[in-house]
């Protein structure tokens, strides 16, 4: 999935983002607005290979239960209270247990609320929540044309680790993809005493 760029109290962070918005856990009741924001991002043609936002059941099954966040305005901030203006979530990259601490990032902000720091605050909260959930590596595949998303991820500590040329087609057009990655400095640094060098190598080898 290609991320679009323009904490929860259960993860030990204050919910206040600034004087106008809060970052809170995503709930099923938020889905209609989350789906709308997702669709608006996809409509730009630079957010993902996906062409349309899925229904709740499909999205719910594809994303981790941990670290599902929405940004909602406080009263008087330009939108209805509890009406999300942005969202962030994680999806697994593999079913293999050795990659259990690696997740794909998605961050979407409503076009009418971009440029107000909402994406950055969602990313900060998502990183904190992911580490609390034991995630040690976050990755994102981003179209190079999506400069806002590339900038957002760089500011979040991501670095470019690969460039996938003509990686896939979107509506008949071949698209390149930047692979960006953030390695936690808090999670996953302790080597298990019983791990062999072969097991350690397998955990870090790609494409398995």
Describe, in short, the structure shown.
This protein has 208 residues and is an alpha+beta fold.
> Which secondary-structure class do the elements indicate?
alpha+beta
Tally of contiguous helical segments:
5
Please, what is the average pLDDT? 82
Distance between the termini: 19 Å
- Helical coverage, percent range: 25-40%
The strand count comes to 7
For the largest beta-sheet, the strand count, sense and barrel status come to: 7 strands, mixed
Low-confidence stretches: 1-17, 193-208
Biggest sheet strand line-up? 1-2-3-4-5-7-6
Order of helices and strands: EHHEEEHEHEEH
Proportion of residues in extended strands:
25-35%
Spatial extent as radius of gyration: 17 Å
Could you say which overall geometry the principal axes of the C-alpha atoms support? globular
Describe the overall structure:
This protein is an alpha+beta fold and 208 residues long. 25% of the residues lie in helices and 26% in strands. The chain contains five helices and seven strands; from the N terminus they run βααβββαβαββα. β6 and β7 form a beta hairpin. The longest helix is centred in the middle third of the chain and has 15 residues. 34% of the residues are buried. The N terminus and C terminus are likely disordered.
